[in-house]
Amino acid sequence: MTAAAPVCRLGVFADRTSGILLHLTSLPGPHGNGDLGPASTSFLTALAAAGQTWWQMLPVGPVGRGYSPYDSASSFAGNPLLVDLQALARTGLLTRGELAAPAALGRGPARFAASERFRTSRLRLAWERHCRRPRARTAKLECFRERAGSWLTDYPLYRALREAHGTPWPDWDAELRDRRPRALERALKVHADTVGFHEFVQFLFDEQWRALRTRGRKLGVRLLGDLPMFVAHDSAEVWANRDLFFLDAKGRRTVVAGVPPDAFSRSGQRWGNPLYRWARLRNTGYGWWIERLAATLARFDAVRLDHFIAFHRYWEVPASSRTARRGRFVLAPGEDFFARAEQALGGLPFVAEDLGLVTPEVTALREQYSLPGMRVLTFAFDDGEDGRVYLPHRYDSHAVAYTGTHDNDTARGWFNEKPRPGDAAHAAALRRRRARVLDYAGTDGREIHWDLIGLVLRSAANTAIIPLQDVMGLDSQARMNVPGTPNDNWCWRFEAGSLEGRTLERLGSLTAATERDVRPASRPRRRT
Fold it and tell me: Is 367 a catalytic residue?
């Protein structure tokens, strides 16, 4: 594939801007995890005051195993754990007393299991009261149903059946598994209340999300979302679109997604997601995929495309294989897909997560459609030549620069990493890495997080994104995710009042000094 001549497609990434990476669940709040409540609007205000243009989040769909936002039962639905219960008290669907939660839910890390129990019981109460409300409220729900389209037909019924059966959809009786019309009609009648409840929760999420986005636009803060490459096998979309995935007659996976063995894993990584039948998707004009992109862009101003390399080629693993060692690369029609998507969407406001096994063909695909790639500073200082592309003096303007991502340790944690016990080679590698950092940044390392933030903000990359943990100078205890580990991830959240005004002022000053504050008042006046 040969890259086409660059065209002016930079769009929202044309200006020199910066922002913060923080998932909504990491906000403070009284109900076990951050949500779309007052803390979200306060955070928007804080971002605007510090001259930030972007708020980047992780996927906001329903969470899956281990409460991971990357293992979702739907690519279209919103996460019920993000619904603000306090807003329901303001509309009379809950009482103030019903908002009172155990004190432990308001402190420390996110407590997803306890939060889910508390929130679900309150949402159920709100649903019961909604059903007794005047027609005006019901009319709003009807408008949402029309706007949401087909996914709101499939997802609530899937959730109702999943709860009734307690097993993944391939294990349901054949009539429901295979979506025979009469069986679906009976299920809609039998589970009408549960289906209605899940529609109602999605309506609440949509209403609150629209309010957050409206507030962000007024403040000049854009929202940057995240779209996983693959979808969960046990999801509404796979159940409803079986022909688009490699499944057998009973809905079971025949091949699954993963990545091949490399220096980090001798057996590779077997992710287990079903793989797309790209030939069938192409025959439909990629309708399902484009609908997925459009739904995400209805919530966000731009979107990070996770595992971008799979739009060129992906690692196919037999479903019977326990590891990813026995697999093969299969080509995907990325060039044709993005041409169709650009035509359908009117633009491609996407960030390509081009980390991993990046080939010249992957780079050519990204450049052909002028998608900014990612540059992660903490990748730059290990032994070998591979990391040199991540040194800030090598960034081009059409890139999104990070100190780290949700999958990395915090800047302080990374810099102060301890060697593995008894591993002299690892200890020596860490000493060399530390020396390179200090030499490159010209620092003594006492405020290493600000040193690294400064390197990213001063780089030529048009867009710079800093995890909030790095702005706050937190250590490894604040890490969001350790890839390959199933437990204790996604739980970090900051305490109310812990984000000091001085910290935000310092970030704002550095943002202005590096010409990333795009507010009119921050721009130097031209001499006449």
Answer: no
Task: Give residue 437's identity as a one-letter amino acid code.
Answer: V
Give 398-441 as a DSSP string.
Answer: SEEEES--TTSPPHHHHHTPPPPTT-HHHHHHHHHHHHHHHHHH
Q: Is 306 designated active site?
A: yes
Q: How many whole angstroms separate alpha carbon 104 and alpha carbon 30?
A: 9
Q: What is the 3-state secondary structure (H, E, C) of 303-351?
A: EEECCHHHHCEEEEEECCCCCCCCCEEEECCHHHHHHHHHHHHCCCCEE
Q: Out of 154, 226, 237, 306, which one is annotated catalytic?
A: 306
- Concerning whether 175 is annotated as a catalytic residue, the answer is no
**3-state SS class at 273:** strand
Please report, as a single letter, which amino acid is at residue 349: P
Give the span between the Cα atoms of 19 and 53, in whole angstroms.
Answer: 5
Q: In angstroms, what CA-CA distances link 434 with 71, 257, 272, 383, 391?
A: 35, 35, 37, 11, 14
- Please state the pTM of the whole predicted model: 0.94
Per-residue confidence of the chain (528 residues) as pLDDT tens digits?
A: 333 333 446 689 999 999 999 999 999 999 999 999 999 999 999 999 999 999 999 999 999 999 999 999 999 999 999 999 999 999 999 999 999 999 999 999 999 999 999 999 999 999 999 998 766 567 888 889 999 988 999 999 999 999 999 999 999 999 999 999 999 999 999 999 999 999 999 999 999 999 999 999 999 999 999 999 999 999 999 999 999 999 999 999 999 999 998 766 788 889 999 999 999 999 999 999 999 999 999 999 999 999 999 999 999 999 999 999 999 999 999 999 999 999 999 999 999 999 988 999 999 999 999 999 999 999 999 998 788 899 999 999 999 999 999 999 999 999 999 999 999 999 999 999 999 999 999 999 999 999 999 999 999 999 999 999 999 999 999 999 998 788 889 999 999 989 988 999 999 999 999 999 987 665 544 443
Active-site pick, 226, 237, 353, 451: 353
- Active-site position among 98, 207, 407, 475: 407
